[in-house]
Design brief:
Elements (H helix, E strand, L loop, with lengths): L2 H21 L6 H8 L3 H7 L3 H24 L5 H18 L1 H9 L6 H27 L8 H13 L1 H4 L8 H15 L4
């Protein structure tokens, strides 16, 4: 693939992401995406099979990146509290710093074709599994105290992902400040101490 082709593919994905974030998947046309990328509508299909294919690619890339970050944090150094703190930090920072993409991949998942959705759900399961295992390890080591490991892990994950919905770039709260604050909340949720 040439650099020009790669550049055009990336331009189309960026245009799709922005359009999906502002108009929603169903409110966006391939004509909208093409215009934002500076192409004719037919030019979209040279690089992507469909609008859904672009949503899938955005979702896959974002989730694969987050899986790597979370799994690295879950297997990192230190005790369970250190690992949980780092998991929360990477999820929050990614969802705030790239909140536009995060909103698209989290809130437009219903628009994916069944086989694509299954693949994204499998990636999400890996993220949740790493988070739950970290909480479970902390309970087993006596660092954490919760009778509901899965529910607590779901609550932690939910608050972290939801940052993408309300975060405003340039506001007084930086992604790092939110991540530190949420890490503290997560540790209180598991009654670390």
């Amino acid at each position: 693939m040439t650099t020009e082709t790669t550049s055009t593919r990336e331009r189309l994905l960026l245009a799709a992401r922005k359009s999906f974030a502002h108009k929603g998947f169903h409110g966006t046309t391939t004509r909208d995406i093409a215009a934002a990328a500076g192409l004719s509508p037919a030019g979209v299909y040279v690089h992507h099979r469909s609008k859904e294919d672009m949503l899938y690619e955005l979702s896959r890339l974002g989730h694969e990146h987050l899986v790597g970050l979370v799994e690295d944090a879950a297997s990192g150094p230190g005790g369970s509290a250190d690992r949980l703190r780092e998991i929360v930090r990477v999820i929050v920072v990614m969802h705030a710093a790239d909140h536009e993409s995060a909103r698209v991949v989290n809130y437009e998942i219903e628009a994916l074709a069944p086989e694509h959705r299954a693949e994204i759900e499998a990636l999400r399961t890996r993220i949740q599994r790493a988070l739950r295992a970290t909480v479970q390890d902390g309970v087993a080591a006596g660092e954490f105290h919760t009778d509901e490991v899965a529910m607590t892990a779901n609550a932690i994950s939910g608050m972290c992902v939801d940052v993408a919905r309300w975060y405003i770039a340039g506001d007084r709260w930086t992604p790092e400040r939110i991540a530190d604050h949420f890490a503290g909340i997560a540790l209180r949720m598991v009654e670390a101490g």
